[in-house]
Write a structure and sequence with these properties.
about 280 residues, alpha/beta
Length: about 280
């Protein structure tokens, strides 16, 4: 059985990651971009995009594929909805014309509108359905999965169109792994949200989480620094840092502008990030 990395080994990784981020911040980095995709929801069979409120109803589910279909359509394509999957309601208006008589005896044509709904499933909820696939497969990374499975007192998880951590419910929301361009960006984003969760009162009790302030405030910005550095450190432990540090550095730069500080702020935030990473890795004091 292979021995787990020692605390000193983790500390060495943390130092290397912090130094790399600082170097990239000082040399200039490309603008950060959202690492997951939100494509226009589309019916797989008709190829027609959904419109109006249906775009929100479907996109919020956080699936990587934009393609949806009804239970009947899945059968028509030779597949089926997996047992236990729950569909999503979409709505449409049905317009009917009818004639009616006015009080003076004239006949006029009117239109009635009835709101109808039906249930659709994402192709990722189905079996034996052929649909356009992502250009790059986003597969699990064993070491990252080991870190996730080993986190003590982990928060709850739900699938959503965005990545977030909600302290009031102690829940992490994440798009499906297939919504990301690469496996590395998926785990980097997930580690970011998990680092936020370590600030919960039941874990490390960090001020930036316990006393939430509005988006863009100094407290909020510092918490973002901690979360992204913690994510980069965990990526370093998992061996995927080269693919994630550049994105982390550019993301951090946007928050440093809010704080009106230089890269030394990263070193200050790294101390809290190290505690968070150690907690996630099961090294709770």
């Amino acid at each position: 059985m292979e021995a787990a990395p020692s605390l000193s080994q983790h500390s060495s990784v943390y130092s290397i990651i912090t130094e790399q981020i600082v170097q990239q911040l000082e040399s200039g980095v490309a603008p950060w971009r959202k690492p997951w995709n939100v494509a226009q929801p589309t019916n797989l069979l008709s190829k027609k995009p959904y419109r109006g409120i249906n775009v929100l109803l479907l996109a919020v589910r956080g699936y990587g594929s934009p393609y949806w279909l009804t239970y009947k359509q899945a059968s028509m394509l030779g597949g089926n909805v997996r047992r236990g999957e729950h569909g999503t309601k979409v709505v449409f208006w049905k317009f009917d014309k009818f004639e009616t008589e006015t009080p003076d005896g004239a006949t006029v044509e009117k239109t009635s509108a009835i709101l109808r709904y039906y249930t659709v499933f994402n192709v990722e909820q189905c079996e034996r359905i052929k649909a356009p696939q992502a250009a790059h497969p986003v597969n699990p990374i064993d070491e990252c999965e080991r870190i996730l499975a080993g986190m003590p007192h982990a928060p709850g998880f739900v699938q959503d169109a965005r990545a977030w951590y909600r302290p009031s419910t102690d829940t992490v929301g994440m798009p499906a792994r297939s919504a990301f361009d690469t496996s590395e960006t998926y785990y980097g984003t997930l580690f970011h949200e998990l680092t936020h969760s370590t600030g919960h009162a039941s874990r490390l009790g960090r001020e930036g989480i316990e006393k939430l302030e509005q988006f863009g405030s100094e407290s909020y910005s510092r918490e973002e620094l901690i979360a992204e550095i913690g994510s980069a450190m965990l990526c370093g432990v998992a061996g995927i840092a080269p693919q994630t540090v550049a994105n982390s550095a550019s993301y951090l730069q946007s928050w440093l502008r809010v704080l009106k500080a230089d890269s030394r702020m990263v070193v200050a935030a790294a101390s809290s990030a190290q505690k968070a990473a150690d907690y996630i890795l099961g090294r709770v004091a």
